[in-house]
Amino acid sequence: MAWSPYELDTRSFGKVMNYPFAGLDFLLDEDLNLVFIEANAVPGGLFVMHHANRLIYELAPSLRHLLFRYNYMDLFVDMCYKYYLLMRNMPLTRAIVTTPLNGSPILIPEHMSLVRKFRQRGVETYIVDRRQYHVRGNKLYVGIGSKVWVPDIIVRRNTMFPKNLGQVVVNMSEVGIITGSKYRTYRIVRNYKKKMGGKDTFRLPKSYFARNLNEALSKAEEILENHDGVVIKPNKGEGGRDIVFIRKLSELEEKARNLRKRESSTFIVQEMINSYRLRLGREKYLFDIRVYAFLGNFIGCHIRLPKIPFGKGNIESWAISNISRGGRYLPVFFDSSIY
């Protein structure tokens, strides 16, 4: 099975074996520096990028040379196959693609595409939800019709999933121990930057851990003394929910009301980044950048735009770009210098 476009140096495999499919989120500050925001245990958006880039390739031939690539689903399945070979050193014959029990219909085309791509490579593959599998010992068993079936590899596309499995999983649930805590992710990335000698490929926002809401508000006051704004996020939140942006002390108590329902939660408190604004027509937008890597190799990225332009309505509406909050996809084109 060919692994394209990269052949992974097996000596480097240990660095990426626990996070083979990486989805990382960045901002661009006003000086066009990358600012790391978070990592995702189950990155979404790959199929959208695959489909969008394929449409550009087919319908806009003059732009083809600006696409980094477009066959992302093929590349993902090839990566899974290579990952399995590196982990087990034997042929891959059985796979499952997991799906949330009440998942959005928007996920169905991605899952069907993955099944089709695996089957084209001779791998028996099914889509399953948690009603169809159970764990015995450290092995996951799947009910397929009247038979009980043991997959070689599990492509995990739902967040709640068993840990400590003996099978190969992309990505294993244990990744969530890190990515499920924004502050733990921040500390690991911060320590990695120190270990690498503080190379300025990206920067981190100043970030603080708060054990409760009162501690978060106190830390926010401190940050506002030296910065233009502060962001308070649930430490274990997802989907852009329950995030508040505060630009002056007079807003603190009002914004805190939105977090009272999570008063027992822990929080991460960060400086607000003065982000670069992207002009589209007459409007400007804040945005973030979702970056994907397979086995440690960059394979593509796209932009996520908030649902409304900069400065229209409340800041949470024009500063949060998660697709689940109404964010929109925007392709990224590359000139030849990136290849």
Kindly describe this structure:
The chain has 339 residues and is an alpha+beta fold. It has 2 domains: 44-173, 3-Layer(aba) Sandwich (Rossmann fold); 182-338, Dna Ligase, domain 1 (2-Layer Sandwich), CATH 3.30.1490.20. Helix content is 26%, strand content 26%. The chain has helices spanning 13-16, 46-59, 72-88, 108-120, 176-179, 182-195, 213-224, 252-257, 315-319; strands at residues 21-28, 34-40, 94-98, 124-128, 133-136, 139-144, 147-149, 153-155, 168-170, 207-210, 230-234, 244-246, 267-271, 278-280, 283-285, 288-294, 297-305, 328-331. The strands form 5 sheets. It has a 5-stranded antiparallel beta sheet with strand order 2-1-16-17-18. It has a 4-stranded parallel beta sheet with strand order 4-3-8-9, with helices on one face. A hairpin with a 5-residue loop joins β1 and β2 (34-40). The relative contact order is 0.16.
Q: Could you give a quick summary of the protein structure above?
A:
The chain is α+β, with helices and mostly antiparallel strands and 339 residues long. The chain contains 9 helices and 18 strands.
What descriptors fit this protein?
five-stranded antiparallel beta sheet, 18 strands, 339 residues, globular, 26% strand, Rossmann fold, Dna Ligase, domain 1
